[in-house]
Task: structure prediction
Amino acid sequence: MVEIKDKKKEKRETPRPVIAVGDGAAIPTKEDVGLFTAWRVSFVGAIATVACLVIFSPDPYWRILKFLPDGILVTFQVTVAAIILALIIGLFTGLGRISKNKIINGIASLYVEIVRGIPLLVQLFYIYFALGRIVNVPAMASAIIAMAVCYGAYMGEIFRAGIESVSSGQMEAARSLGMSSSQAMRHVILPQAIKTILPPIGNEFVALLKDSSLVSILAVSDLLRRGREFAAESFNYFETYTLVALVYLIITLFLSKLISIMEDRVGANRQ
Amino acid sequence: MPTDNNSVMVEMREVYKYFGQLKALDNVSLDIHDGEKLVLIGPSGSGKSTLLRSINQLEQIDHGRIVVDGIDISDPDTNINKVREEIGMVFQSFNVFPHKTVLDNVNLAQIVVRKRSKKEASKISRELLNKVGIIEKVNEYPDKLSGGQQQRVAIARALAMKPKIMLFDEPTSALDPEMIGEVLDVMIKLAKEGITMIVVTHEMGFAREVADRVIFMDYGAIIEEGTPEHFFKNPTQERTKLFLNQIL
Result:
């Protein structure tokens, strides 16, 4: 009896699992007062700097700023499309990584290992030119595919950890009611895993947005490439990249904040 | 042992199960009859939970045969999901679905597995939640419920499938003492309805009141079996006596 009571205590005191992903922007939380202030300082500072530059030195800053929005749009398009695709790839990779089927498990693990071992920029080149050989894919599409293939592997690990964070008793309860393993996954395990998965996915989203600047190497006119085009024409390299950096900073800081608000909401609704 | 095969609900023959070197089930043969209330007792690690879990194949046995309601579940061609629909299970740690309301907990498998409409499922769920005395919590989430209440939801959830057999794996062991009664009351009520029940428990009062037969297990083997009277008045095996002395 004593043993059983101890077990129960342990269960109660086990903290909710948290997946720590080291990569990407630090998402501020309310508890993290220092970071919260740092967020404010950098966000307000970045906007104020852009405003000052544009107001006090409209040539070239105002011209640069007018030139960039098309690129921002492309950056968002690449990021959003790649993250959606990466989520789908990640879900199946995560499921594959926990599969008892040796072949499926092997393929998923191999994919993760290979992708994690090759730099994103190399993957981008490789997929771009490999796809170019077989089919004629627009640069934008191959950039999105390459980003998704890379981030899918990381997403897969997040999904796997999230699924494994749900107690095995939940799966047993679902299976004992006659559910197939895919029914149990869909109705019982994944809805619970999502709460653990969401914060690191938010992180990955911000990280992917930053990494999307790599696609400027291909013929995709994202924010960085628009900057490069402007600089090459006007020779205002320093001014252009200052503004490009500030715009990236404002976007990522804004997104980080948005994600932390979303997480709070999910946390509050957590049942 | 009656030989009438129609009345046998669970038939286990020469069942072995290993966890690494450990023999969790050691040559277990057992017939459980339709409507029988069987109580499994024994020290922890004696294999009683493993025996219970092998009946709905939450544990896969390594050797032997288990036939449930005429279906050989040790046959790899058997669709175990179909068999599990007929076997309700209640766990020590409740395992209610924390992301679903009480009603949805009971509804889920009815809708997904039994393919009942939501309306039909809810009707059955409400009847059962009423029966286990928790109807007023129907729209609550499990984290707002006490352990005893969660366990009663879990019982209702299993019953909603209209199973032929109910397995209880130490259903009161994780409960605070004041909540054990409310769960046992539900189980006693259920026992009177004629469903086949197999219960792993340390609640000897329950065994005495409800059991048709008590089985004592140790080291993965059945050491002694008999009626509750036999067990509590004159057990024959030394190990049984020792165990009963410790817990009574």
In short: The first strand of chain B starts at residue 8 and ends at 19. Residues 19 and 25 of chain B are 9 Å apart (CA to CA).
